[in-house]
């Protein structure tokens, strides 16, 4: 059963951008918000300008397609992560397939690889299908996609090759990787996570994919709010993100305590559906 939290009080927006009285996170200047928005692929910038809500969907196995069907709306922009869940649903469901999508892929350590892209487990064939039915943007962390080979994988035993895996990006999908319209790069040390407590003794310690995009979208919507002059900012919905120890078994290089604390205090117009 889901547990939903939200905060719908009207925010105050001045030169300093603060979208929450409860959260300690504040985007201190308009330049950070503008940078966050412009970091997104152009196709997603356009989609957000026209959307009512952005929906981030965690790779949480407790989230079902039935729940997604009840939660998504026609004015949404969807954000999916790495080797995202329910790929066939997002490609084939009548509403889900028609919605703009941002796909985020995290760099694996300091290697040439990204989670969710060849030669690691991926949904490249589904991505191709998605791109034919709705705007599709790709965001990679730290570096553009490097078109790595199997020999570039620093830990191949973590994700053994299967018979049907696609190991290369098809030529008809090259536009996703060659144009800022569809593809851009997000640093894991972007200003939106300037307050993040990294673990200095853990190599590649960084925010989790979900938290990084959560912060990026908060800042991006603040920028949109500043130029729209509307009463309320773009809504944000988080599906499958938890603020408890269910995440403790994940990679120890993420500061889960900090992230759970931040996610337990949703800012204005943010709704979190926990499972």
Which class of secondary structure composition applies to the elements?
A: alpha/beta
**How many domain units?**
1
Largest sheet: 8 strands, mixed
How large a portion of the residues is in β-strands, by DSSP E? 15-25%
Helical content band? 25-40%
For the secondary structure, the number of strands is 10
Low-confidence segments: 6-27
Number of helices: 8
Looking across the biggest beta sheet, what order are the strands in? 1-10-9-4-5-6-7-8
Secondary-structure element sequence? EEEHHEHEHEHEHEHEHE
What is the distance, rounded to the nearest whole angstrom, between the alpha carbons of the first and last residues? 6 Å
- Per the principal axes of the C-alpha atoms, what is the gross shape? globular
Write the topology of this structure.
Elements lengths: L2 E5 L4 E2 L3 E2 L11 H10 L2 H9 L2 E5 L7 H7 L4 E6 L5 H6 L8 E5 L18 H8 L4 E6 L33 H4 L4 E4 L22 H20 L6 E5 L16 H8 L6 E5 L1
Parallel strand pairs: 4-5, 4-9, 5-6, 6-7, 7-8, 9-10
Antiparallel strand pairs: 1-10, 2-3
Helix pairs in contact: 1-7
Please describe what this structure looks like:
With 275 residues, the protein is of the alpha/beta class. The chain has one domain (3-149, 167-274). The chain contains eight helices and ten strands. The protein has helices at 30-39, 42-50, 65-71, 87-92, 124-131, 175-178, 209-228, 256-263, and strands spanning 3-7, 12-13, 17-18, 53-57, 76-81, 101-105, 136-141, 183-186, 235-239, 270-274. It has an eight-stranded mixed β-sheet. Strands 2-3 form a two-stranded antiparallel sheet. 42% of the residues are buried.
